[in-house]
Specification:
mainly alpha, globular
Length: about 150
């Protein structure tokens, strides 16, 4: 299931799926940096956000390399405990978790993308296409890609 509603966003989602897991994680990070000032705090105190926070806390408690592996497991559809917990989240919880992970990277609580990391050259056209999307399309894109992640049954 995807939230992408227009052809440009759907195309971006399809392109994103073609990249390896580490590239996908880096693209999520750089995408967050691109739109973070436009994001509104969720303000939700519902059970879904609480559950997403519990998954975040599980990842936070891990050593840095295992934090990275947990994210790889989620993005790579690995059948791990954290990936299964992620799969059980509804869409708002999945978005909340990735937002919390990005904020954790900013505060150096979660392993960060190395400062010397450069996206592979084959992502250039993809990045340019996403940069041309408006804010709503970018958010639809992010929602669509994180919704599909998690353990495959």
């Amino acid at each position: 299931m995807t939230y992408a509603t227009d052809e440009s966003t759907k195309q971006a989602v399809e392109q994103f799926r073609q990249f390896d897991v580490d590239t996908q994680l880096a693209l999520l990070w750089f995408g967050y940096l691109d739109i973070k000032d436009e994001l509104l705090p969720s303000g939700n105190d519902n059970a879904e956000v609480d559950t997403a926070n519990a998954v975040y806390d599980q990842i936070l408690a891990l050593p840095k390399e295992q934090q990275l592996q947990a994210q790889r497991d989620i993005a790579g559809h690995t059948n791990s405990d954290i990936s299964r917990a992620y799969t059980a989240l509804h869409s708002s919880g999945k978005l909340e978790l990735w937002l919390r992970l990005a904020q954790g990277m900013e505060s150096d609580q979660i392993i960060i993308v190395p400062s010397d990391y450069e996206l592979p050259e084959e992502t250039n056209d993809f990045v340019e296409g996403v940069e041309n999307l408006d804010l709503e399309q970018r958010i639809d894109f992010m929602r669509s890609v994180v919704l599909e992640m998690g353990a495959k049954q």
